[in-house]
Queue: 2 jobs
Job 1
Amino acid sequence: MNSDSGILDVIIEVVTALLPLVVFFLIFQTLYLKFPWNRLKRILAGLLVAGLGIILFLYAVYTGFMPISTMIGEYMMTNLDSWTIVGFGFLLGFMATLAEPAVRVLTYQVEQHSTGFMNARLLLITLSIGVGAFVALGMAKVAFGLDFHAIIIGGYLLAVVLMAFCDRDFVSVAFDAGAAATGPMAVSLLMAMMTGLANAKPGADPLLDGFGIIALIALAPVIFITGLGVIIMIKTKESSLNEI
């Protein structure tokens, strides 16, 4: 799907993606669930509204959001110095994560199921800072020509070390948060901007240098949430020792 796609192309794409899910649900409804008509009507209405929302969102992404993001990336590389680009990377990553619906749903559910032990606001801020830092690192990769393999291997080694020292509940949340952070905001805004940066940098390859940002965004929550778990564990032990 490219930026010239019409609304009909988007409708076909969304219907093709959602139709198997609807059929699967209707089969279960007929054989096992057997919801009453009033409840079934609300569910079907919700599916319809969700489908219309996805159609409008994707059409806006394909025709406006991604092309504009690519042009902004090209402008930044052409007109701004490298450190300013890195700073903008942190700000954009932070704001995109704050605006990501999947991240907000995740932090809300984690707070509910942990009975408040994992605070939703603290998790949201931690995730936003982490993604912002790694988006800045991704832009530094393009601006300064950093080695992607060293970044990603070093990052996962650090994550393994942190996982060994934090509570396993934080490990589970960290990996789910990595999936939630790589939602439509990150893909449509940040990935397009990265390819724009690489496209405007002399000697850079948009395919080799521009992509990889999603891998960094997925890694950021793993490191920062497990890091938060280590800090909380240390603070809890210190509090226990002080009480003794």
Job 2
Amino acid sequence: MDERKAFPALGATMHGFRVWAPHAREVAVRVDGRDHPLTRAEDGVFETSLSVPPGTDYGYVVDGKGPLPDPYSRSQPLGVGMPSRVVDPSSFSWSDHEWPGLSLDDLVVYELHVGTFSDAGTFVGAIERLPQLRELGVTAIEVMPVATFPGTRNWGYDGVYVYAPHPVYGGPQGLVALVDAAHRAGLGVILDVVYNHIGPGSDAIAAFGPYFTSRHRTFWGEALDYAERGVREWAIQNAEMWVRDYHVDGLRLDATHAVFDDGEPHVLAELADRVQAASPRALVISEMGVGDLRPIEEWGHDAQWADELHHLVHVLLTGESEGYYADYRPSTVDLARQLERTPPAKLVVCSQNHDQVGNRALGDRPKPDELRIRAAAVLFAPQTPLLFMGEEYGEQRPFQFFTDHTDPAIAEATREGRKREFESFAAFSGRGVPDPQDPETFARSKLRPEEGDQELVDFYRRLLALRRRLPRAVSVEADDEARTLRIRRGDVELLLDFSDRSVTFRGVSPL
């Protein structure tokens, strides 16, 4: 594979159509009931210079099969089915010309799910609360995946058409409105993207070419074959699109341990280079398995999630020792080592996120008497903090695992898989795992900020204000027998007592 040779831009524009279909004999684009043949070009690409207006609906016919949605579709107005729709990014209206972009040095991330963050469950519905987040001290929202997925309810990790913002959330124009409003409010936007698998419905994409490989397997299904140049471009051009056309300030790459590539450079290293070439201020942040530092040490990513701090805080407070918590002991000495990890800005830490809440059987959140010590441990850490929507006011409604698969077989497999996942956990013995397909599972997960604890909000706000003036340098003293941790940054000392769950500051006014 010649990495120096530019690959053509894929997808539909007002001036033509281009799709990767290396094994096809014939490809046509169907517009208004008429098939227009594409010409085979280099690198397995078919193309035509057919001109159409924005908003045109279309599909592809591959060797007589179809019409099929475009793997690079910018809009799927009816969901994962037909048709695809032409989008003109030059028509997007922006008011963020003076937005300076994000800085890793002062990054405070707030993760949210569009469908449950507001009553409306849309991009526009999320806008109202953005000024409150900036006032809190957040510098960027991190939006869980928005690629078009089956049905209307999903966490987003089952996306099929990764170029197309989900129509239920408001489609392309809705995402533009959210990003532009965030920038007006002084917030950056980080978008969660998934390049380790494709959700149910991937057979429609596989009809175009060898997207998948049996050489590897992911927890969620077939692995994408990044030995194929067209598959690499499917992912990389998507990443470039978000930062270029949607003004997104950064990407959070989901489960990069399940992105397999034996080539050089690794696809995620090439992705980072090209994203930063497309938008030099854009950040690339990865989720990676515990202990694997390839994103920041080898691939040139700006930061990566570091879940160890969460796991240790959780075990100290709850005593849970099942699943991945089995590898952690309730030790303040071990927690101290996490606080001393370097480089701190490149490690993203949290006390809640969608995984650590939603991947519990009941989606239950931490207990109210844990919230202050959890917040203090994360926000006083020199690492980059991430908050999960609602934690700042003590949201006690669960964040449960919900889906809306339209294929009955996949829906039932999802139900059964969720039950099997937790049947060996003593903590959930005899307690029913919510049905992910039940609309009530989704409804229970909607935030209710009007029921929040304003004193807790003030605690978070003052902690974040304190954080902004402290140096990164940290010194830590731990006492496993007393279950205490003493942390010093600059002229401020924090004592965390995990026995009585107390938080004591010295050197500043009481919080």
